[in-house]
Amino acid sequence: MPAYPNPGNVYAGAGPNMLAEPVRADKALVYVPNTNSDDVSVIDPNTYRVVGTFPGGPEPQHVIPSYNLRTLYVASDEVPDGGLVPVDPRTGKPGAFRKLEDVYNLYFTPDGRQAIVVAEAYQRLDFYDLASWQRVRSVRFPECKGVNHMDYSADGKIMMFSCEFANRMLVLDTASLRKLREFTLPAATDGMPQDTRLTPDGQHFLVADMHANGVYVFDAQATRQTGFVPTGKGAHGIYFSRDGKLAYVTNRDAGSITVLDLATLKPATTWKIPGGGSPDMGSLSADGTTLWLSGRYHNEVYALRTSDGKLLARIPVGKGPHGLTIWPQPGRYSLGHTANIR
């Protein structure tokens, strides 16, 4: 994993408009995978209009920037016919579908040599050589039903995964994939852990839980749970402001976004989607002024101004929009998902 430009902020290389040289010529577009209509809506972020649609494979779930930021991958996970659709970010055009087993989500090893396919239906992590897309190893965790979202510690030595349908979290050694720890979340919530992110200071893992209606807090090495922050019904996605001071937590069932002050890990404010909505997953514009989110149950996309939460646009798209990505984004390399760029 490359050294950090600022040891106090693991995302310092992804600050406002800090676009890597190869990324600067990429086309400004928002890619929206529509899980229920098996396509991808393409939005012009300047006009807030859909400018194209292309096939996303069976049940497209997320659009993921590659480790080197030169390809976007649409991950589709319908069993047994899932796979990846590569997209050229310079043109916004898709390439040929590559069949892979159950690509619910996609991450990358810290050294950038392998892709990690999160095979949710099989409780597996499948590792692929990025040069050949041949599977080189596979590890199954039967106790982790619905293996889902993950992130790395600041040094990249451990990885923390959510088990969406098992009410627990797994902590693995990145090199050996040996299970170091597991946490069973409070049974009273019948938890459903979702997005898992390391805070910019590298001191906490945050885990959004849809049934607990808030965010669990773990320490820097995921050795213990240290807190819980109520946010709203259906807490789902976690995104960080470009200056590393705030976290935006989407509350899908409440139709709101909670803004956390990362210095205190307490809510600073909550933004409601006017008229209701179902904010799910997304990412921030390169300058950090706009938060783009899919409206999972409303077949629309939201663009919100990060200075005050004002809804700038709601854009009709396909059916069941999920893990959207706006491109280009700042950063040096991608660890996967829609916006985990350091």
From TrEMBL:
Keyword set includes Signal: yes
Signal peptide: none
InterPro entries from the UniProt entry: Host-pathogen_enzymatic-act (IPR051200), N2O_reductase_N (IPR011045), WD40/YVTN_repeat-like_dom_sf (IPR015943), YNCE-like_beta-prop (IPR048433), YVTN_b-propeller_repeat (IPR011964)
UniProt keyword annotations, A-Z: Signal
Stored Gene3D superfamilies: YVTN repeat-like/Quinoprotein amine dehydrogenase
Domain YNCE-like beta-propeller: 28-324
Pfam families for this protein: YNCE (PF21783)
Protein name, entry field: 40-residue YVTN family beta-propeller repeat-containing protein
Annotated source species: Micromonospora eburnea
